[in-house]
Amino acid sequence: MSRPQDPPRPFISFGNPFRMILPKGSNLSPKLLNLLNSFENALAGRLKKLKPSVREDVLNLSWMRSAMESLCGIHTDIKTLITALELPVSDWDEKWLDVYLDNSVKLLDICNAFSSEISRLNQGHLYLQCALHNLGSASPKQFVRARSSLDGWRQHTSSKNPRLDNCFSIMDSLAQTLDLPKIKNSAKGKVLMGAMFGVKVVTLFVCSIFAAALSGSTKKLMDLHVPETCLWAEAFADVQTFVNTEIRIIYSSQRVTVVKELEAVDMGVKKLYSIVQDEVDVTVDPIEAELLQKSTSDLEMSARNYAQGLDLLAKEVDSFFQIVLTGRDALLSNLRIGGNISNPIKSNNIEGQTVR
After folding, report:
1. Which of 24, 27, 186, 260, CA to CA, is 20 to 30 A from 356?
2. Which residue ranges does UniProt annotate as crossing the membrane (predicted)?
């Protein structure tokens, strides 16, 4: 499963979004400024909580679940902001609608790619269960079967998921459109676009981490530069530097994966495989029997933690999918009622929403 280290990607820089959204000389009312500041401060708070307390937590499935929970919260926050702005969908500029609809359909496709990979990894757990079941007996025949199951696990986890490749191209297209449309005559629109910028950047950051973790490569690990005018810029730079640096260190050390639970299982499989490969008669060698029992017990525990972590992560990815989907559906429904919609962007992959 080892892969060569990918060269670091340069910072993805883009123009100051607030220079376009809030041009020089423009002022927001105290109410609108308070709404935007409250949203940005909340975003900064979520980012601070997202930074792991210790490097060992980058990346484990628990942290990945927390990252997805944060995304769910951030996307819920923007819905709350839109409601507070009292900006009817019928008043949305066509450019805003294009941004929202295009981004949402891309996020749905990214979720489908992640869900597909999590499901594939979960299926590999069956090989571990078979191996552990066969090791319940010390007969040579069962050793052969256990070895075959462990071989199946190794082949399964080292294979590639083509759906992730499509995910990479989608992320690249999102990164190329981080600059938001210029807002001329709508103060509420400026607040909306400013908040959407924050949502888009943080979403792309988390998705790039997931892509690196699930693909086994830092090729798509992004470094995004946020203008200092954003109240959440410092918190974002802090967590991005911390997490991305640690991921690159892990891969440069030739470790098989940044996902800690998967790494624990992989190490357990290697230890157990060396025992069953030698076909030692544990019925007459108490030392080997004790080693087999301990290795089997260790793998059983790490496999259980891995499977539970994947299940919880799958549920969070599904929750994020549903939040994006319901927000998109609500917008399209309002547009239809207002008679202001034609040929909405559609995902080619909505049917792939099932996580498990």
Report:
1. 260
2. 191-214
C-alpha separations of 78 from 59, 161, 276 in Å: 27, 32, 54
Is there a domain that residue 355 lies in?
A: no
Q: Is residue 349 part of a domain?
A: no
**Does 142 fall in a domain?**
yes
Q: Is the peptide bond before 71 cis (omega within 30 degrees of 0)?
A: no
Q: Which residues of 92-116 are buried (b: 16+ CB within 10 A; e: fewer)?
A: bbeebbebbbebbbbbbbbbbbbbb
Q: How many domains does one find in the chain? A: 1
Condensed to tens digits (0 to 9), the pLDDT of residues 221-235 reads 899 999 998 999 999
pLDDT digits (tens, 9 = 90+) for 66-113: 999 999 999 999 999 988 988 887 778 888 888 888 889 999 999 999
Q: What pTM value is reported for the model?
A: 0.83
| Residue at 346 is within a domain | no
